[in-house]
């Protein structure tokens, strides 16, 4: 049974939260104890669901396909470690993410390095580690060739922008005609000439986007670059393109009325449109991120205060625009369902009323939901925020220097700490002048 579109039900979140309460992870602050570790909020990640999605990817694509999950979607090392142990690779958009991948135990050959702004040091480190490298532009390609000299390169690909246009969310569309990513496919002759001039390039890379992109556009982007593969091999020889990297890109249904795209529908559409992609003469790579993580994660915060402000009843919680940056700044484009549980973690019942959920940050836009109808919220209750597994903690805002919250993972009855809440010392160290000594392996 597919778990690709599965979301966390309120009752299931309640069960896990009550288990966390029983284990002492989120104790109430009454009676007040100045020496107790107080976690007013926590993020939960369903590792069982993540592992099931990796298994579904393995079953849906040809044997040997590398599924390199995008680190930027969720950079918590223990989450990355769970992915690696499930057989996935990792896709890094910066050298820092490369180091997260290595810390998570990912073998170098399963790390795909995609940054559009690689420095010479970045390239040198990637080459030294033997990572897979996707080149963003011709100047970068020339730089890599000069740095390699006569050395045998790792697998190097060229990112091509298929120019299929944007989706419904402009800020996350990466295949418009003027996108900053990759070489535009309209420069077809130059791309083919680059493959002639640089034998080290043996792969093609494409990424269209994810949220707000229809299935037809996602598939068309892959099809355009695959047709380029055929032209290249007519010029430089059959078999020159060793690997085809499809990128990521399946949207998530954040609203109950939204319809997500099943993985099976995407794979079937690819097979129908581009049968040569599955002919067996190409190694394939995918770079899913949001679709793996988003609906596997949810967060809770205790309600600290409830107050009346004009005609609105405000519930003040400990998560806001620090965790949900896109929700706060672009509320029409980014949505999260919200529920309320009582102080013991049970779904709250009783009369409902409108309430505005506001975060802890010192600016007026820190609002997660305005006049949402919920059972009456009281201080000490929990607000549950759904579908925060991707592009939330990885985009954490340091405004007001709030501490990154506790992160817990679960799989069935197992519950474990994936990341402890930051201490006050951690925050001071982040903003301080002192420099830690680099490790002996750091370049």
Structure description:
This protein is α/β, with parallel strands linked by helices and 443 residues long. The chain has two domains: 10-45 and 294-430, Lyase, Ornithine Decarboxylase, Chain A, domain 1; 47-292, Alanine racemase (TIM Barrel, Alpha-Beta Barrel), CATH 3.20.20.10. The protein has twelve helices and 18 strands. Strand 2 (66-70), helix 3 and strand 3 (89-92) form a beta-alpha-beta unit. The two termini are 45 Å apart. The model has no long low-confidence stretch (mean pLDDT 92).
Q: Can you tell me the number of structural domains?
A: 2
Share of residues in helices: 25-40%
Count of runs of 4 or more consecutive helical residues? 12
CATH topology of the largest domain: TIM Barrel
Q: Which architecture of the largest domain would the CATH scheme give at its second level?
A: Alpha-Beta Barrel
- Gross morphology is elongated
Unreliable runs, pLDDT <50, ≥5 residues? none
Instruction: Tell me the name of the CATH homologous superfamily of the largest domain.
Output: Alanine racemase
Span between N and C termini?
A: 45 Å
CA gyration radius, whole angstroms: 23 Å
CATH class of the largest domain: Alpha Beta
Secondary-structure element order, N to C: HEHEHEHEHEHEEHEHEHEHEEHEEEEEEH
What is the typical, i.e. mean, pLDDT?
92
Number of DSSP strand runs: 18
How is the biggest beta sheet arranged? 9 strands, mixed
Strand content: 15-25%
Class derived from helix and strand content: alpha/beta
